[in-house]
Structures are given as structure tokens and as C-alpha cells.
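lol forgot to send this yesterday, sorry. C-alpha cells for the thing we talked abt
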């Protein structure tokens, strides 16, 4: 199983003709989660071919409008579609009250769908999505309002079976091999028991990504991105405007690259570009710091 990252909106603050407000899909076969839900996110998801019925959760980093304003619309659409499966919405403190206000004002129209809201607190931690294969964790970032980044992964897979070794151990080809592959001992005709240990390679790590925006460069972005295959980090400004970036609670592409290098992330995906910068130029000036950097563009899929 692999992860596919689809940026749904890559602009900071407001949408432009080329870039929507912040949102990003993390998808695997048959399911996906959305990180942030800026205005226009559901439309971008439709354009990307992501079925809304397969959405397992929405993970909101913070309550600034460019990361949140698409959520009421998305919830309304799911309600109109008659979704019965509960939807998890994870977000910062205050998101429950905000959604309750909108619901009481009649702004959500979620119908029979249960919206399970999970507020992040303190140092964050596991975000459990019932019935989902995604493993999600959160960590607090450093922005102007309470903000949490997310790490999304798929479970590790069992190691592969060394058939030469199972042959040598006398295990016949057939269903018993599947048992060994699943990590269970098998009993051969004659009663001899063969343990899987020694016949199975080490488990294969599930693919992982982290989503760190909005934030100034901070240690918990490093923690979040530690060893992930892809770190998505905000890069609101070019490095010449780092003072402005910090003043507004943001990072530059160069700083995001330093975070990715320290975290030993496999690749770095820059996003959340101010309408006043070129994403490609922001990525370009960070190339010397991390070997694999891409500037996200809306609906530009990235395989992990
Ligand atoms: Zn933002």
C-alpha cells in the first residue's frame, strides 16, 4: 500500500487564480484524509477524483479562515449525500464550539451524519479514526493561534517469506505458506511444528507523511517529520523576508528545508505560498539544504 499526496490548495491567506486556500489530501486505496479544509477544498477534491464518500477524516491545523472556511461547505455536501458513516474532524481547541455555533445557526446541514469532533490538547498525540487504516498523530506547532500539525501513516507490513528457507524447512507450497507469512506457526503432516521466525524478513515500514503548517520553524515540526517519507511544510515567503515571516508566524522555504534535513525526511513538499512569491523560486533557493524538494501545485499528485 502506498500513499498519494494531492495538494488541493497551496496558497497562503487567500485563494488566487492558480492556487486555492490550504487543503491537502492523503490517499491510499479506497480511503483518504484531508489536511486542512480551506475555501474550495471540496471542489478541488472532486477535480482530483477523490470520492467524498471515502473520506475518513478532516484534520484541521488551526482556525484561521484560509485553513477552515471550506469545512462547513464540505460537511453540508456530505449531509446532502446522505452519508451515514460518522466523520472524524480533528482540530485545535475551540473547533467544537465553533462547529456547534454553526450547527445551531443552521449553517451545516449534516443531516443524519454524525460529526465526531476531536480537539487536540497539550502536546497532542494519537488521533484515532475508527475503522480507518490511517494512523494519525498530532503535535503542537508555533503559530499565532493554537495550531497542531499531523503525521499520517499506514501500518507496517509483515516481512516477506523466504521461500527457499521454507522449502528447506520442509513446508510444502500452498496454504501453509500463507500462515507463515501471517506470522503464525504451522504444523506439518507428522506433527512437526515450524515457527515463522527465521523464515520471514523484517517488517516493512508503512509509508508516512507529516503536515506542518502554519508555523515558524520549531522543534515539534522536526519531531513530526522525523523519518517520514514526505514532509509537507509551509513556506510562506522567500528567505529575504524571514523577519516578516516570523512576525506573522510563518517560515521560509530555506527554513522548511532545514527542518526537513534535521528530521531526515525523505522528501520535502513546500506549500502555503504567499500570493507575492513564486513557489518554484522559494523551492529553488532551498535546494542546497535538502536534496529532494518540490514546490506543491494544486492537484499535482505526489506518490510516497
Ligand atoms: Zn495559513
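and heres what i got for the seq, position by position
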Amino acid at each position: 500500500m502506498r500513499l498519494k499526496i494531492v495538494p488541493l490548495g497551496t496558497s497562503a491567506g487567500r485563494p488566487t487564480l492558480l492556487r486555492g486556500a490550504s487543503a491537502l489530501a492523503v490517499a491510499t486505496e479506497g480511503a483518504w484524509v484531508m489536511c486542512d479544509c480551506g475555501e474550495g477544498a471540496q471542489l478541488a477534491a472532486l477535480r482530483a477524483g477523490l470520492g467524498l464518500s471515502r473520506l475518513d477524516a478532516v484534520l484541521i491545523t488551526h482556525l484561521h479562515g484560509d485553513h477552515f472556511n471550506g469545512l462547513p461547505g464540505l460537511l453540508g455536501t456530505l449531509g446532502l449525500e446522505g452519508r451515514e458513516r460518522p466523520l472524524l474532524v480533528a482540530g485545535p481547541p475551540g473547533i467544537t464550539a465553533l462547529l456547534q455555533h454553526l450547527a445551531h445557526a443552521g449553517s451545516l446541514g449534516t443531516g443524519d451524519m454524525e460529526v465526531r469532533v476531536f480537539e487536540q490538547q497539550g502536546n497532542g498525540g494519537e488521533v484515532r479514526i475508527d475503522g480507518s487504516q490511517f494512523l494519525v498523530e498530532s503535535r503542537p506547532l508555533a503559530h499565532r493561534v493554537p495550531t497542531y500539525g499531523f503525521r499520517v501513516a499506514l501500518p507496517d507490513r509483515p516481512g516477506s517469506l523466504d521461500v527457499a528457507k521454507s522449502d528447506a524447512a520442509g513446508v510444502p507450497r500452498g496454504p501453509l505458506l500463507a500462515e507463515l507469512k501471517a506470522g503464525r506457526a504451522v504444523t506439518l503432516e507428522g506433527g512437526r511444528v515450524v515457527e515463522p521466525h527465521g523464515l520471514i524478513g523484517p517488517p516493512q515500514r508503512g509509508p508516512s507523511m507529516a503536515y506542518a503548517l502554519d508555523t515558524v520553524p520549531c522543534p515539534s515540526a522536526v519531531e513530526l517529520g522525523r523519518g517520514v517519507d514526505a514532509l509537507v511544510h509551509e513556506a510562506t515567503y522567500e528567505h529575504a523576508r524571514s523577519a516578516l515571516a516570523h512576525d506573522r508566524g510563518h517560515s521560509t522555504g530555506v527554513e522548511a528545508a532545514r527542518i526537513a534535513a534535521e528530521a531526515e525526511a525523505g522528501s520535502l513538499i513546500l506549500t502555503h505560498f504567499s500570493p507575492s512569491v513564486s513557489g518554484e523560486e522559494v523551492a529553488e533557493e532551498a535546494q542546497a539544504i535538502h536534496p529532494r524538494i518540490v514546490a506543491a501545485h494544486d492537484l499535482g499528485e505526489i506518490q510516497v
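The mean pLDDT is 96. anyway ping me if u want another try
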